[in-house]
Amino acid sequence: MIHEYRLKPAQMEKIEATRQSNKWEPGFATRIAGSKDVAEAEDRGDKAAVQIYTDGSGLGGKIGASAVLIRRGVEKRQLRFCLGTMRKHTVYEGECVGLVLAMELLRRERGVEEVSICVDSQAAIMAAASNKRGPGHHILDEFHRQQASLIGKHQNMAMLIRWTPGHRDITGNEAADTAARKATEGDTSAVHQLPKYLRNQLPDSRSAVQQAFNAKLKRLAAKVWERSPRYERMNRIVPGLPSASYFNSIAKLPRKHTSIITQLITGHAPLNKHLHRIGKADSATCPCCHEHEETTTHFLLHCPVHRQARALMMAEISDDEQNLAGLFATHENRKQLLNFISQTTRFRAVFSTLAQLQAQD
Question: Are 81 and 183 in contact (CB under 8 A)?
């Protein structure tokens, strides 16, 4: 499996079974406001002499991280770091690296009694205060080590990590966002300015590798499906298959109804055209009108025997969707189609009685 997935265990992150002792508690406070407006107001009212804004960004296939230190309203310095490609790292990791960069900036300051670490990722804030294991926790473990080492340098320093939502014109946030974007473009801080932990290549993220592999599988599956002889026929009726939204929609229907929808789309419904092809009917002619071959199109749209039931169905479907593809286009249309089939009783020999579907189904 390692060969098939092209994994390199030596380069993968190690997720430890335990991180800290059970009695471990973070050496800082956290604050996540209940709304963006409240968080923005808290930022304006922040009286700490030092604020450090951090950010993680994913652009151009790269992951960047940044930290910007502001003291008494003036930006003093910033750090920028590129983690690598999105195939090996995540934006969440970038947010965590931002915390590591923040500790490095804080290490260079003198006489800090109170500091606010301003992060626009709630997930990173909650993970920083947690002892749970998970992807990327090696970065937060380094953040904890650096934070603990600063206790001796800044005695009695109070640290608050709080949420500052992005895209709210918060000056520090905008500066950190710009710096993180620069990092994705290769404009990073000099190696000697970075903390030692970031001077070597970070291990690959389990989450990023898994996401990249799943995306590759989906692309390959799509290519295989497009080469299938059934692709063109099914794509005319339901474009975009396979589609998660489509499958989630039909999953809401009873199993019997789902089977009918699938058989109609694939052309394997118990209609004479298909039954004659597989040797289960003497003729492909419609047994109702005895005029044309009983195809899916004939049964749903043209057979004169089902005119009344069809009129009731079409009355509930918009004019531009009164065609074969339109009948399958939406969940509501598919319900009307199934009610039409129930009224014709055409499939009763195979599926028995079909219950009429209501609006809430």
Answer: yes
As given in the structure block, the two tokens for residue 144 are 């904890």
Tens of pLDDT along 215-262?
Answer: 988 899 989 999 988 888 888 888 888 888 888 988 988 899 999 999
pTM: 0.75
- Every domain of the chain and the residues it spans: 2-211, 229-351
pLDDT in tens, 321-350: 999 999 999 999 999 999 999 999 999 988
Pairwise CA distance, residues 73 & 42, whole Å: 15
CATH classification number, 2-211, choose in 1.10.150.20, 3.30.420.10, 3.40.50.11270, 3.90.550.10: 3.30.420.10
